[in-house]
Amino acid sequence: MELLGNHHVSAMTADASLNLEFYTKVLGMRLVKKTVNQDDTSVYHLFYGDEKGNPGTELTFFEIPRAAKNHEGVSSISSISLRVRDNQALAFWKEQFGKLIIPHEEIVERGGRLTLAFQDPEGQRLLMVSDQENKGVKGGTHWKNSPISEENAIRGLGPIRLTVRKPEKTVAVLTNLLGFREKESYASLVQNQPAIRVFETGEGGSGAEVHIEERSDLPFERLGRGGVHHVAFRVKDDEELKQWIERIAAAGFQHSGYVDRFYFHSLYFREPNGILFELATDGPGFDTDEQLDYLGETLALPPFLEPKRQQIEAKLKPLNTK
Q1: What is the pLDDT of residue 144?
Q2: I need a surface site. Which of 23, 88, 170, 299 has the fewest CB within 10 A?
């Protein structure tokens, strides 16, 4: 068994319309699925990705209307990276953010790659990362209808940064339980803080990395809009997922058991610092119930929710995705 890389990250928004505008119109990602939170069907769950929403390209958002602002701290997924093809694409985005008055920083090196930190309208902490020097898991496929050219388009998820107070406990889960390898470390950009440690799985590269940041100067995070709910790692298929369930149970972790999300199948558990991990299968995929050319245009519901469509739609605020 070996995890193949990062599968998706699920974050929080208080405004689905604002979120949709930013991630599709500004960042040029494709809305590959407009559905609902399967644990609370009164709110949207939006999935963005490449042309098909391939595993490793998915950034998803739960809409929680009136959610309080996220308060940054430890025991958190503190940064989501988005891959672009090369350093020139990074320069393009820096210019774009300047024109559009989007909060951003200077281009700096992190972990041997050039990066550009920026924020979405709700303060979500994001990082563009150049794939120019990258080797390992390949990026996604450009969506032909994206407002961003193929040369500058987002290619998928890059490294995920976890910020914790006691890193060794999280490191033990990543390496001893999940099979990640420690690759290297790089200096923190925060003064007087330990180096950030890099772990990778599968083929490695930016699409298969987790970065661990140790911070003793921060309180615990209070999750809200602009925060991240969980990170998911790629599992080949159902057979391997069931083996992972056995392995995690044997290690003494409480877990969700097998969860059928229809578009993929999952297992959830919390590592010792309280961060929610998910293991998710590569399939069946987002074109299971919609044609590829029309992904995300209408409200999609898995079969077990379809009988409740009328009640579900009545509770949702209309969201124009065509």
Answers
A1: 94
A2: 88
Report residue 26: phi and psi, to 5°: -85, -50
Q: Tens digits of per-residue pLDDT, 56-94?
A: 999 999 999 999 999 999 999 999 999 999 999 999 999
What mean pLDDT do residues 165-183 have? Answer: 97
Q: Provide the H-helix boundaries in the chain.
A: 16-20, 87-100, 167-172, 238-250, 309-315
What structural domains does the chain harbor?
Answer: 6-315 (3.10.180.10)
CA distance linking residue 232 with residue 322, whole number of Å:
28
Mean pLDDT, all residues of the chain: 97
Which 3 state secondary structure label does DSSP give 99?
helix
Counting Cα atoms < 13 Å in the Cβ hemisphere of 160 gives 31
Query: Residue 127: which of 140, 137, 117 has the closest Cα?
Result: 117
Q: What is the pLDDT at residue 322?
A: 77
